[in-house]
Design goal:
With about 350 residues, the protein is an alpha+beta fold. The chain contains 13 helices and 12 strands. The chain is about 30% helix and about 30% strand.
Length: about 350
Amino acid sequence: MTMNRRSFMKASGMAAALGVTGLAGCNGLLGGGGSGPTNWQYDPETLSSTQMRMFGSMQYGDLYEMRDELPGSMGSAFETESTSSVSQEDIDMFSGVAGGQLSMETQSGSFFGSMVITGSFDPDAIGQEMASSENTQESGEYEGYTLYEGANLDQELPGGSMPGQTPTDATATVAVSADAVVFGVTVDQGTDLGVNGQQSVEAMIDANSGSGTRLADANDHVRQFHSKLGGDTMVVGGDVDPELLEMAQEQSGAGMGSQMMNGLRAAGFSAGIDPSTTTYTFALIYESSQAAEDSGIVGLVNMMSQQASESEEINSIDANQDGSSIVVTVEGDTQALLSQGQNQVPMGSMSAGAIPGDV
C-alpha cells in the first residue's frame, strides 16, 4: 500500500487521543473475564469478508509499573514528558484487531481495524483535545461513548498514491469514555470493503459488552492460538487465508521457508516480561497434525537449541508439537535479551508524546 499509518493518522486528526504513547504506531498491532484483551477483539468477518485477520494486545500497565527495573532505553522510554490528555500512569492495556484484503494485480490492499486503550481517563479533557484539531468533529454517542470522526478523509491522503496507482480513501472514528478510548480506522485502496471507522469502533465496543461476536469464539485457529500463548505481557498474531499463503510460497520458491508455510493457518508470538527473565513464545497453528510434523520446525529448533543456549542472551530454547500446533519457547535474561533485541519486539517506541509527530 502506498499510504502509511503516519500520513493517515496525521490527516485524520485522531492522534491527539492516542498521543500518550508510540505503541499506537508500532508495527506490532494484540484474556479472561472483565475487559480482557480478547474480549475487545471482534471477528472482522462480521463486518466484511477478509483474507486475513490480525490481532494483538499489550499489558502496558504492567510494563509501566516495572519501568524502573527494565533495562536501558526500554525503561527510560517511559520518562518522557507529555502534554496529552491521556497520562501513561492511567493506562491498563492495549488491544487491537484488524481485517484486510490484498490485490496482487494492483499491488494494493484495503483494511479496517480497531484499537482500544483501557484505563482511567477524563473524557472532557480528551474531548477538548480532539476538538482542537481542525480535522476532527464530534459525531454523536454510542453505548455511553462520545464519538469523534475525522473530516475530509474521502480524498487522497498525504504521501498517497503514485501516478498510475489506486487512490486511497480512509475513514476514522474515536469513541471516548471514562475507562476506554476506542480508535477505528478503514483504508480502502482498490477494494471497497464496505466498512467505515464508526462501524469498526462500534464492533469493538459490542464485542467487549458481549453483544458482538469475538474473534476467538468464531475462529478455531485463533482460539487454539490463544490457548497456547495465554495472557502474556504482549501477544501478536494473525489468521491468514490459504490462498495468500499459496501465493507467498510461489514467490518464495522451494526451500525451508516454503515448507514451513505448507498447511499453516495462524501464527504469532507472545512475550512474558519481568525485570529478571523474559520468555518469547511462538505459536504456529496448522490445518492438521501431519502438516505440523511435515513443517520440520520442531527438529530444526531442537537441533539448534544447543548452540543457542550457549549465548549470553538465551537460557533455553525448545520446540514441541501438540496435534496441529507447534510451540517454540525462548527464555533469557531480560537485561541481555531486551537490550540487544528490542528490534525483535515492537517496544522501542514507548515514549510519551510520540504521536502525532512520530506516528
